[in-house]
From TrEMBL:
UniProt keyword list: NADP, Oxidoreductase
GO molecular function, one term: oxidoreductase activity, acting on the CH-OH group of donors, NAD or NADP as acceptor
Domain NADP-dependent oxidoreductase: 25-263
Binding site for substrate: H113
Protein name: Aldo/keto reductase
Family of the protein in this entry: Belongs to the aldo/keto reductase family.
Species in which this protein is naturally found: Christiangramia lutea
């Protein structure tokens, strides 16, 4: 993929073009905070905004995009189906509720947020129908492993265009990336900066000094050079601009190898096979 400009795109397997760098708005407060973050991002050249029903800020996201001077069709918007909304009966209703909150007639990408056992395949069938009906331009899943993707493949029909997973130098899962590449599924990173925990690593500091960049910029450039789209989240103007300033340098194969070697399978979020217990303990679901 061409990673020379923030407005350049990846072509998904159905022909839809998706920006490879976007703004994540997890934990951005609905209202002024998320609206300002999106305005900062759009001014800096971002054209992908990633939200979710669970984030409880879809209304602010929609308002910010609608009030910008950029046509809706030029902004790629993602939202996600939450755990409690999965299953045959609830999925379409949840999708329509997200559209209503955003104030849009369609979504660019809709993802199943977590693969709820016994429900996510039924939800996938509904996403396939939403796609066929033209309500969403691309569909995919989040927080899935190969066996989840295989179960979707066994269903037949439209297959995921995107897999959005936790991805950073300490959680690469190269075999899963390779599987996605083989099956024309675009890998996308959430928590690419490991919620800030990666920003004091010596190897990354050394690379940042060598390239005269910040550690965050080194990591985000590494994402893209590995063929992984990325949605770093921030509500701060200077950080949003900084995260986009990654198109005037390249990492060498040796640089990439050094970063790859940091993997130790550390997660900042739930494991895709154990997330129900994880969220119950946090009181997020019952």
């Amino acid at each position: 993929m061409d990673i020379s400009d923030i407005k350049a795109t990846i072509t998904l397997h159905n022909g839809v073009k998706m920006p490879y760098l976007g703004l994540g708005v997890y934990k951005a407060e609905d209202g002024k905070e998320v609206k300002n973050a999106i305005h900062y991002a759009l001014e800096a050249g971002y054209r992908l905004i990633d939200t979710a029903a669970f984030y409880d800020n879809e209304e602010g996201v929609g308002t910010a995009i609608s009030s910008s001077n950029i046509p809706r069709e030029d902004i790629f918007v993602t939202s996600k189906l939450w755990i409690d909304d999965q299953g045959k009966e609830n999925t379409r209703k949840a999708f329509e509720n997200s559209l209503k909150k955003l104030g849009f007639e369609y979504l660019d990408l809709y993802l199943i947020h977590w693969p709820v056992p016994g429900k996510f395949l039924e939800s996938w069938k509904v996403l396939q129908k939403l796609y066929e009906d033209g309500k969403v331009k691309a569909i995919g899943v989040s927080n899935c492993l190969q066996h989840h993707l295989e179960s979707i493949k066994d269903l037949g029909g439209i297959q995921p265009m995107v897999l959005q997973n936790e991805f950073h130098p300490k959680l690469i899962q190269q075999e899963l990336i390779d599987y996605c590449r083989k099956n024309a599924i675009q890998y996308q990173a959430w928590s690419p900066l490991m919620r800030g925990e990666i920003l004091d690593h010596k190897i990354l500091k050394d690379l940042a000094e060598e390239h005269k960049k910040t550690i965050a910029q080194i990591v985000l450039r590494w994402d893209l050079e590995k063929g992984v789209a990325s949605i770093p989240k921030s509500v701060h103007k200077d950080r949003i601009i900084e995260n986009a300033n990654i198109f005037d340098f390249e990492l060498s194969p040796d640089d990439i190898q050094k970063i790859d070697a940091l993997e130790n399978h550390t997660r900042t979020g739930a494991h895709p096979d154990k997330f129900m217990e994880y969220f119950r303990k946090k009181g997020v679901i019952v």
